[in-house]
């Protein structure tokens, strides 16, 4: 049996709002932004795209994991300049801002609750809050 389509009508389509000169893949996981990062189940599922001042684009989960690692030293994995968020091409920008604010705070700095931000693990953060 052979099936021939005579017409195709897309019901819906979405794309990320990225700068014209940017690549359409994450600089860390190398997956297209219309696809999913390693931590997401569905495209666009609470994973906004983070754009740095250097114009490199990453999935929020990819860049947050990178910045949390010791070897990153808070620098862009592509050009090694200090990573500062330029924009969020996101549906969930508030969550992205909260996450990166915590990650970009210098290690050992305390937040308003007295808990240490940027500690190596959760146990150290709890220990610092108890003292």
UniProtKB/TrEMBL annotation:
InterPro entries: RING-box_E3_Ubiquitin_Ligase, RING-H2_APC11, Znf_RING, Znf_RING/FYVE/PHD. One of its GO terms (biological process) is cell division. Coiled coil: none annotated. This is Anaphase-promoting complex subunit 11. Residues 102-131 are annotated as: Disordered. Residues 37-80 form the RING-type domain. It comes from Elasticomyces elasticus. Pfam families: zf-ANAPC11. The lineage of its organism: Eukaryota, Fungi, Dikarya, Ascomycota, Pezizomycotina. One of its GO terms (molecular function) is ubiquitin protein ligase activity. GO terms for cellular component: anaphase-promoting complex. Keywords: Cell cycle, Cell division, Ligase, Metal-binding, Mitosis, Ubl conjugation pathway, Zinc, Zinc-finger.
